[in-house]
Amino acid sequence: MSVMQRIQSAVEAHPIVLFMKGTPEYPMCGFSSRAVETLRAAGLDDAQLHVVNVLEDPDVRANLPRFSNWPTFPQLFIHGELIGGCDITVELHESGELARMVAEVRSA
């Protein structure tokens, strides 16, 4: 399976996917840490979050920006759609939209 197919499979197989540097327990950059904190604040628990640590998979790290057309990490996908990075995740949380999106996933 190619790296692009592996990325596509992860995005399709899980309602919420965060491609980040590190893990929720041990984030390896401030933006990834903030994205996880924001998702938790929006009501998501770690069991509902599928995380791909891009530092453990150099092929995913190199190819995800081409897959998503988004240059930076972290990258949040909900229901197969790229939501964005840390700044957009925080903005959605501040507007209440992220909590609505999380609630939809939790009730599905």
UniProtKB/TrEMBL annotation:
GO molecular function per UniProt: 2 iron, 2 sulfur cluster binding; disulfide oxidoreductase activity; metal ion binding
Keyword check for Cell membrane: no
CDD domains: GRX_PICOT_like
Keywords: 2Fe-2S, Iron, Iron-sulfur, Metal-binding, Redox-active center
SUPFAM superfamilies assigned: Thioredoxin-like
Matches recorded under Pfam families: Glutaredoxin
Domain of life: Bacteria
NCBIfam families: Grx4 family monothiol glutaredoxin
Family: Belongs to the glutaredoxin family. Monothiol subfamily.
Protein name: Glutaredoxin
Species the sequence originates in: Luteimonas yindakuii
